[in-house]
Structures are given as structure tokens and as C-alpha cells.
């Protein structure tokens, strides 16, 4: 039985004007099943966002395959997105950039609902309640909401389409520390309640630890370690993971500096 | 605590806007003594950055500040912009969150490190350059001589923040205000910078005001922590006290909201390393 989303030895590179090609992703294999949360962790420039884009067909893949429900992902061109691929939805880092400032949030969620094959699954009010906002807020514009509330709207919009795979590309990085865990939990709860698989991309291992079932640690375009999140946290095998974990500052009030 | 060359903020009140305006700070009292890192924690909009900006005289034009900011016996709030220029950049320096924004993209590092130094001290180009090399060496930027001829885009974020810190230290300040200095950086780079800041604070006896929302950074670096909410300091105390036994309900909620309450790391789990890091409400959600 194939996994819901499967990446097999994927390579992605970018052309750099005058400097050849930059190899961003070098042979990454991942698989995600429905009802599971896979965390993808790594530092800036390690290729984690490139993977998210490749899964959505936003960047061309040089080698390897990405299959979703057994079919390959085609690159998104100028034409309408393949209805098959619309079952993959994404939540981006900056909700201010990903929402249209000139349309009410209700109408933007309706856009998502329109592509949902199961038209009776949700209403805008359901979704707003699901992300813990007032249904009457559908008439508001993004600028009337705070960062955390906007990100809730972005999540509601993605869920409205009834995705099988939900991708969060640093969905909490632009939020206040006290909100990050709440929003991450909300994404996990809603994705799993709808039976979707969640690919949660973050640079913050401590947040990934509380939302993901499995984690893959990336460095310089490769997966250096993958496994159940508790195992990776407690017994990291790769040197890089160990370094990453050691660098997280502990909130213990002891004044110990992180790192070695 | 007073008269030691540190910074002493008394009943600082900031109102922004015309007429009655909006009160951003409702009377802040804070001491930033030398040789210590004083942390200012709080969420976005709590007034942490405005506190830092008040010290530097960088408030928006519609803002009115009252109270006192005492530095070496002078109340900075009473000074004209011209008089304040003798202090800021020289005796009181600031490091901002995003080094790609705080450094000019089209001027060389050498130029940006030496201009304010020459203006404040009247040093020659030669002396300023030597000082810049010395400072870049101190903040561990590789090949400082070559770095002077480079431009900001040729550095990584972490290296650039080191350069920004070198710029802040050029004139030998006694107060350093660091506003979210590591927020834009990766954790491994952040760890290196925290070590650097701690070292600088200890070696140079700097009075560091560390502004950050990240309690992990606070816990590693700050000696004392002030927690701000809606323009007021709701809690102020020793690092260990504030983090392990917060008195104010708001501080407690900030600490409870953290994902990994045990703060365990691979290097060494802390003494009370409880293993259940999952948040309340995270279980039973499948």
C-alpha cells in the first residue's frame, strides 16, 4: 500500500544567474499517511521550504518522484491547478501576505469551500468556529485581525478545501511565542479531525516535538535523521540533530548558555 | 544601584498621538546596572521596544515621553537631539533585530563601522580602521581585514549580526541595548551569539538591556528579568525566581505557553527534567 504522499529521492536545484545551479534538495525521501503529522525541521537554507513548494508543484523537480495518492505531482503552470493536486493545501509563514487584503475573510474561506468535492462538509461559520473565532468575523478584512487571528483564517481557508494533505510552511514563525504552541496544536487537531495528513515545517524543534508524530531533520538539502519524534528528541543519532537540540535554550532559569 | 554608570529609568511614560493620544508606557521603573544583562520580556505590543527606543531618543515624532532616564547623572529625556547625539552611538549603543535592515546595503562594512566612530572621537581614518579590525576580531568575524571591504549581502545573517554588534561597540559604550538580537537567526547561530553577548557583558562590564519575547533566550542570558504587559512592568526579579516561581499570573501564563516546559536538551537534561512535554490538551486529539 502506497503512502498518501510519497517523495522518492527528490532533487531540486535553482538556477543562480552567473553562478551555476544551487542544489537545494539532494535526494530526499519522505512519506506521509493520512491522520499522521510529520515534522520537517532544519535551519535556514536547508531546503525545507523547497520541499513544500515541490510538493505543491511550485518548483520543478530535477530527479526523483513525488506521488500523491499514487499519481505524480505535476508542476503548476499558468493553467488552473489540477483538481487532484488541490487536495494538497498549504498554510504559509506570513498570513498577511497569503491573505488578500481587499476581500473579507469569509469570502476567502468560501474560495476554499468551492473546490471541496464534499460541498456539505463545512460552512464558513463551522470553519471559523473550528479555528476558535466568532462566526460573525466572516465580514472582517485581514487588517482588522491580529497576526494570530490571521493565521487562524489561513488555516480555515486551507481546511475549507477539504485537503488530504495539509502543509504548514513555518506557519507559526511570525507569531508571538505564547501563541505558537496554541496555533500549532490547532493545526494538528483540525488536520487530524478531518483525516488529513499534516506536513509541519519548522525551524523550531521544541514546537515540532509537541505537534508531530514523526520528524525528519534536514541539513544542507539532505535528511540527516528521521524517526518518531520522541525517539529523535530523547536519543538523537545524527551529530547534526544533537547539535540542533543542544542549541535550544532551556527555560530553566539557571542561566546556562546553549550549545557546546 | 545608582551612580554605577548603568542606566536608570524612572516613571517613564510615553504617549503617542495628538491630543490625549494613546498611552504606550504607563510609568516604567527599571535599573540596568553594569556587568549585568537585564532582560525585558513580553509579547508584541507590550512596549518593550518603545522602552529601548526612548533611551535612544528614537521615538516617533508624535510621541511624548515623561519621567526620567538617568545615565551618568544626566536625564536623557531633557537633552536636545544635538546633546543626545553625544551619548547615543557612543556611550549608549543599540543592536536591532534584523541586521540586513540595520546595516546599509550599499555601504561597505568598513565605512559603516568607522563613520560614527570618527564623528564621535575625531579619530583618523587609520585609527578608525584599526579599531574596526579590533572590534571585528572581538566579535569573531573571520578575516576582519577583508571583511571591512565587503558589503552586507556578502555575509550570512549570523555574521552580519556580529558586524552590527561590532559597530555598536566601536565607541566603547557602557550601555548596550539589544532589541531581539537573535530572533532572526537559527538556533545554532543564536547559541553562538548568546555566548558572545555574555562574554562581552562580562569582559567589558557592559550594562546590557536585552529585549526579547523568547523566554529561552532570557533564561540563558539575562541576570534579572522584567516582564512587561500593556506598557507596565508586571514582574521584576532574578532570572531563576521569575522563571521558576513567577508571581504574576501573566508571567505564569507566558511560561505555561511554552512547548517544552522541561527545557531538556540533548547535552544534558536539567535537574527537574520531567519528560512529559506535551501541552495540556494535546493528547487525545487523534
Could you please describe the fold and organization of this structure?
The complex is a heterodimer of chains A (260) and B (286). By secondary structure, chain A is α/β, with parallel strands linked by helices. Helix content of chain A is 31%, strand content 25%. In chain A, strands 6-7-8-3-9-10 form a six-stranded mixed β-sheet, with helices on both faces. In chain A, helix 4 crosses helix 5 and helix 6 (177-193) packs parallel to helix 7. The longest helix of chain A has 17 residues, at 177-193. With 286 residues, chain B is of the alpha/beta class. In chain B, 35% of the residues lie in helices and 22% in strands. Chain B has eleven helices and ten strands. In chain B, the strands form two sheets. A six-stranded mixed β-sheet of chain B has the order 6-7-8-3-9-10, sandwiched between helices. In chain B, strands 2-1-4-5 form a four-stranded antiparallel β-sheet, with helices on one face. In chain B, strand 9 (224-229) and strand 10 form a beta hairpin. In chain B, helix 4 packs across helix 5 and helix 4 runs parallel beside helix 7. The radius of gyration of chain B is 20 Å and the shape is globular. Chains A and B meet through helix 6, helix 7 and helix 9 of A and helix 8, helix 9, helix 10 and helix 11 of B.
Amino acid at each position: 500500500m502506497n503512502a498518501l504522499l510519497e517523495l522518492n529521492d527528490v532533487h531540486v536545484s535553482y538556477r543562480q544567474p552567473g553562478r551555476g545551479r544551487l542544489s537545494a534538495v539532494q535526494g530526499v525521501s519522505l512519506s506521509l499517511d493520512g491522520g499522521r503529522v510529520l515534522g520537517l525541521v532544519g535551519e535556514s537554507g536547508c531546503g525545507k521550504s523547497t520541499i513544500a513548494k515541490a510538493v505543491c508543484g511550485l518548483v520543478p523537480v530535477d530527479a526523483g518522484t513525488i506521488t500523491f495518492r499514487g499519481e505524480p505531482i505535476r508542476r503548476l503552470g499558468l493553467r488552473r491547478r489540477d483538481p487532484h493536486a488541490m487536495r494538497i493545501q498549504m498554510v504559509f509563514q506570513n498570513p498577511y501576505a497569503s491573505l488578500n487584503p481587499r476581500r473579507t475573510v469569509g469570502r476567502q474561506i468560501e474560495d476554499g469551500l468551492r473546490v471541496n468535492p464534499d460541498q456539505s462538509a463545512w460552512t464558513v461559520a463551522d470553519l471559523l468556529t473550528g479555528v476558535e473565532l466568532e462566526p460573525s468575523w466572516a465580514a472582517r478584512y485581514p487588517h482588522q485581525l491580529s497576526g494570530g487571528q490571521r493565521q487562524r483564517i489561513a488555516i480555515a481557508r486551507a481546511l475549507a478545501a477539504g485537503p488530504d494533505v495539509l502543509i504548514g510552511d513555518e506557519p507559526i514563525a511570525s507569531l508571538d511565542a505564547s501563541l505558537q504552541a496554541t496555533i500549532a496544536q490547532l493545526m494538528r487537531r483540525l488536520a487530524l479531525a478531518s483525516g488529513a495528513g499534516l506536513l509541519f515545517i519548522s525551524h523550531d524543534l521544541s514546537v515540532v516535538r509537541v505537534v508531530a508524530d514523526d520528524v525528519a531533520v534536514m541539513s544542507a538539502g539532505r535528511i540527516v535523521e528521521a524517526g518518531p519524534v520522541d525517539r529523535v528528541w530523547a536519543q538523537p543519532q545524527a551529530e547534526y540533530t544533537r547539535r540542533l537540540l543542544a542549541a535550544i535554550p532551556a527555560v530553566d532559569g539557571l542561566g546556562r548558555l546553549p550549545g557546546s | 544601584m545608582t551612580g554605577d554608570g548603568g542606566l536608570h529609568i524612572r516613571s517613564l511614560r510615553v504617549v503617542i498621538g495628538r491630543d490625549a493620544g494613546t498611552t504606550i508606557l504607563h510609568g516604567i521603573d527599571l535599573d540596568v546596572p553594569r556587568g549585568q544583562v537585564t532582560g525585558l520580556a513580553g509579547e508584541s505590543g507590550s512596549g518593550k521596544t518603545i522602552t529601548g527606543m526612548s533611551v535612544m531618543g528614537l521615538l516617533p515624532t508624535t510621541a511624548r515621553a515623561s519621567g526620567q532616564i538617568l545615565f551618568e547623572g544626566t536625564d536623557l529625556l531633557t537633552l536636545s537631539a544635538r546633546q543626545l547625539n553625544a551619548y547615543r552611538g557612543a556611550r549608549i549603543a543599540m543592536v536591532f533585530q534584523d541586521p540586513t535592515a540595520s546595516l546599509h546595503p550599499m555601504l561597505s562594512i568598513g565605512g559603516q563601522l568607522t563613520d560614527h566612530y570618527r564623528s564621535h572621537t575625531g579619530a583618523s581614518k587609520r585609527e578608525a580602521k584599526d579599531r574596526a579590525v579590533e572590534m571585528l576580531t572581538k566579535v569573531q568575524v573571520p578575516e576582519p581585514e577583508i571583511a571591512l571591504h565587503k558589503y552586507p549581502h556578502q555575509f550570512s545573517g549570523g555574521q552580519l549580526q556580529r558586524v552590527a554588534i561590532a559597530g555598536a561597540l566601536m565607541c566603547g559604550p557602557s550601555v548596550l541595548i539589544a532589541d531581539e538580537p537573535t530572533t532572526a537567526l537559527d538556533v545554532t547561530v543564536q547559541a553562538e551569539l548568546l555566548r558572545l553577548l555574555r562574554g562581552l557583558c562580562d569582559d567589558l562590564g557592559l550594562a546590557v538591556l536585552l529585549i526579547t519575547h523568547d523566554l529561552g533566550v532570557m533564561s540563558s542570558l539575562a541576570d534579572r528579568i522584567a516582564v512587561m504587559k500593556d506598557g507596565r512592568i508586571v514582574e521584576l526579579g532574578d532570572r531563576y525566581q521569575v522563571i521558576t516561581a513567577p508571581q504574576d499570573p501573566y508571567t505564569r501564563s507566558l511560561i505555561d505557553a511554552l512547548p517544552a516546559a522541561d527545557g531538556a536538551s540533548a547535552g544534558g537534561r536539567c535537574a527537574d527534567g520531567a519528560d512529559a512535554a506535551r501541552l495540556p490538551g494535546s493528547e487525545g486529539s487523534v
